[in-house]
Amino acid sequence: MYAVIETGGKQYRVAKGDVIDIELLPTADKEKGAVTFDRVLFVGGDGVAKLGTPTLAGATVQGAVVAPVRAPKVMIFKKKKRKGYRRLQGHRQDLLRVRIEEISP
Fold this sequence. Notes:
Blueprint: E1 2-7, E2 10-15, E3 19-23, E4 34-37, E5 40-45, E6 48-51, E7 60-70, E8 74-80, E9 85-91, E10 94-104
């Protein structure tokens, strides 16, 4: 069984046991390490498919927080020709690594 969830403005196809990196969640319970995703768009597998309009009512996906991580560095370089203007800046996004524990349709 798998599900399509939406979090942080992105959609993820997840199954039990998957480990995904998502945007930081202010509602994540860091002490218990539990995360609940209630914006479930689709649940499929085992010959059954349920599609939400846009979300499935009552469907949830439970996850466990593995660790906070950081994405690879992205370099931002700005330059204007013949002006001597050059700027270099780096950015690393803070992410949350989550293991999917349970999918309940």
